[in-house]
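Title: Prediction job returns without error message
Component: structure pipeline
Severity: low
Priority: P3
Assignee: unassigned

Description:
Job completed but the reporter wants confirmation the result is attached to the right record. Sequence as submitted:
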Amino acid sequence: MADFIKKTDIYAVGRPWRVIKDLLNDAKVVYNISMSKPTKDFFPLAEEELYVIRQRWSDEGILEITLAARLKSSIIF
């Protein structure tokens, strides 16, 4: 992987965090993460399967990433 990466080279939204985390670490990109949680817990979440739902570059050049867990696929009614 390249030693230098441009801001426009990274588009993480909608991708699994495990993939993006490796990409950012390999490229030596400084990042901060925050978690988004639903206000209600009606549907169960797959907490181990995180996805990027927002990204933004700060004025300091740090990539701000917001993560959310996906819904569990095995919901039985």
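Comment from assignee: result matches the submitted record. The beta strands are 31-35, 45-57, 63-71.
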